[in-house]
């Protein structure tokens, strides 16, 4: 064990390694706290701290009266340049993807939307609230804002498939670039309700602004991803020629 590691961190990392290398299979019940205490020669408090952290991070699930089990694998989504839809990304992982429209309305542009979308104050903006699911479990709550003059009259059907595909095919609007800002946020009452989680759950929070080829703002969105059910893949491509 690394001398700089605490005991519970060492145990957490060892158990996580067993989960990732499939020593512990999905849905398998792991050893009891007492058994882990004996294996690692530590107190129950130390074992419990390790299990709590793995549960919070979404690798374990505790079932009252039954024990602690290995959770399903997290949904993996790419943040690299990709044309794959959410449904395509999820289905390739063997999961059933679903997008559910919560609200579709038209609101006047506020000062924050005016700044994000570069539109006049009070201009009509389509507000689209959606929940994305994998295997019927919510993974993402998203609020998208699209100016009315960009794509007037977005429908429920378009919102529940792919907004970007609908923009391109139905409104002849192509997305050329997206700028994403990522940080950690704790779920509040609204977010936890739609994500079916406890209030205060750590979430990935991503703000996205989409531009067309002319640099016009096409969409602004705010997305909350369950931190215990989602991870992200980032691919970077580097030129062969050394940069000066």
Automatic annotation (TrEMBL):
Residue intervals of the HTH gntR-type domain: 5-73
Keywords: DNA-binding, Transcription, Transcription regulation
CDD domains in the record: WHTH_GntR
GO biological process terms held by the UniProt record: negative regulation of DNA-templated transcription
PROSITE patterns: HTH_GNTR (PS50949)
GO molecular function: DNA binding; DNA-binding transcription factor activity
UniProt keyword Transcription regulation present: yes
Alphabetical list of InterPro entries matching this protein: Bact_HTH_transcr_reg, Chorismate_lyase_/UTRA_dom_sf, Tscrpt_reg_HTH_GntR, UTRA, WH-like_DNA-bd_sf, WH_DNA-bd_sf
Entry annotated with the keyword Cytoplasm: no
Entry protein name: Transcriptional regulator, GntR family
């Amino acid at each position: 064990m690394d001398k700089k590691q605490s005991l519970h961190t060492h145990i957490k990392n060892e158990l996580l390694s067993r989960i990732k290398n499939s020593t512990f299979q999905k849905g398998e019940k792991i050893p009891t706290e007492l058994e882990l205490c004996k294996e690692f020669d530590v107190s129950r408090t130390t074992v419990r701290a390790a299990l709590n952290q793995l549960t919070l991070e979404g690798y374990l699930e505790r079932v009252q009266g039954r024990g602690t089990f290995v959770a399903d694998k997290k949904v993996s989504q790419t943040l690299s340049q990709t044309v794959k839809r959410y449904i395509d990304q999820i289905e390739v992982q063997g999961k059933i993807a679903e997008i559910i429209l919560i609200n579709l309305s038209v609101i006047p542009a506020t000062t924050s939307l005016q700044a994000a979308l570069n539109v006049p104050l009070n201009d009509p903006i389509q507000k689209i609230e959606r929940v994305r699911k994998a295997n019927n479990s919510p993974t993402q709550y998203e609020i998208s804002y699209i100016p009315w003059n960009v794509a007037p009259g977005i429908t429920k059907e378009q919102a529940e498939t792919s907004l970007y595909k609908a923009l391109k095919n139905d409104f002849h609007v192509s997305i050329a670039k997206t700028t994403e800002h990522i940080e950690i946020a704790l779920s509040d009452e609204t977010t936890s309700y739609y994500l079916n989680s406890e209030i205060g759950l750590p979430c990935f929070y991503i703000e996205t602004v989409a531009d067309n080829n002319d640099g016009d703002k096409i969409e602004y969105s705010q997305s909350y991803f369950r931190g215990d059910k989602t991870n992200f893949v980032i691919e970077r491509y580097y030129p062969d020629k050394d940069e000066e």
